[in-house]
Amino acid sequence: MSVENDAPSRSHGRKQVRASLRPRDLMAEDALAGVWTAQVITLVPQAFPGILGESLTGRALKDALWQLQVIDLRRFGQGRHRNVDDTPAGGGAGMVLRPDVMAAAIEAARETAPRGAPLIHLSPRGRPLTQTMAQTLARGPGVTLICGRFEGLDQRVIDHYDIAEVSLGDFVLTGGDIAAQALIDATVRLIPGVLGNAASTEEESFSAGLLEHPHYTRPAEWEGRTIPEVLTSGDHAKVARWRREQAEAITRARRPDLWARHVADRDRRNT
Ligand SMILES: C[S@@+](CC[C@H](N)C(=O)[O-])C[C@H]1O[C@@H](n2cnc3c(N)ncnc32)[C@H](O)[C@@H]1O
Fold first, then answer.
1. What pLDDT was estimated at residue 95?
2. Ligand 1 mean position to 259 CA, how many Å?
3. Last residue within a domain, chosen from 160, 188, 216
4. Residue 66 lies in a domain
5. What is the value of pTM for the model shown?
């Protein structure tokens, strides 16, 4: 089914555009002015929107609360075979993405990127992706993401464009595309209107510097396990206190690094 057909038409500034769940290839006339924009430079454009086209992020994409521009790196490749990579200088296994090819894709992306959108390379060497990072990106105009493949990107292009590097975690993926989708998902859900219940992003893990408390729902008893009594007491103050205590206990036990930062912030606020 083509989602495009039932997508609403919206007017954004000068243009009358049709929101689409299909990844837009890089076409200036497609860009919606003033809409949070994720640009993704990738060798696997068909992997987008992927999971981002589903559920709440998918609905928001269709409703043009955010937009996606996918830039196929292969288009900028060299020669008959559109080569994008070459052997590593100094020898060794694998291939490296050429700086001239990547630069051509970056230049093309920047033509339609919203002013001030940061350029980020997904890389295991980057700063770990955090909720604070997602919050900062969500407040901005968008982001241009570079998905690496093979052994990665020639360092000169990273230095030339002063590209920030962000990691999904201390493990190695085959390519940056899953990391890009994770970063976009974490960011887009913070854009006003994307989630139905705005309060849910304020209470969830990391937002207050703590991991979240446990959740329960019906049935009241399952496999001999009951819901903690306090949650069915109807006493909202007691529930809030219990949730806070649980969040603190879980953070202290599982993430001593987060807990230490939380305690330091709390002490600073109290002095
Ligand atoms: C096979 S990896 C390259 C790994 C690289 N040779 C290294 O050892 O650091 C290929 C691409 O996947 C992406 N990637 C791999 N692991 C990642 C991670 N933890 N976070 C973000 N991107 C990652 C990067 O874009 C990287 O260029």
1. 98
2. 29
3. 188
4. yes
5. 0.90
CA 59 to chain centre: 16
CB 246 within 8 A of CB 214: yes
- Which residue among 123, 149, 151 has the greatest number of ligand 1 atoms within 8 angstroms of its CB, and so is best to mutate? 123
How many Å apart are CA 118 and CA 36, to the nearest integer? 12
- Residue 196 above 90 pLDDT? no
Ligand 1 neighbours by CB, cut-off 6 Å: 122-125, 147-149, 151-152, 167-169, 171-176, 179
C-alpha 154 – ligand 1 centre gap (Å): 13
- Residue nearest atom 5 in ligand 1 by C-alpha distance: 151
Same domain? 175 vs 222: no
**Tokens representing 165?**
């590097």
State mean pLDDT over 207-226.
Answer: 95
| Number of domains within the chain | 2
Same domain, residue pair 41 and 151: yes
Residue 75 CA, ligand 1 centroid: distance in Å = 22
Question: Residue 220 belongs to what domain range?
Answer: 204-270
**pLDDT higher than threshold 70 for residue 219:** yes
- Reported as a single tens digit per residue, the pLDDT across 17-52 is 445 666 665 544 567 899 999 999 999 999 999 999
What interhelical angle do 177-188 and 55-62 show, nearest 10?
80
Report how far residue 206's alpha carbon sits from residue 213's, in angstroms, rounded to the nearest whole number: 11
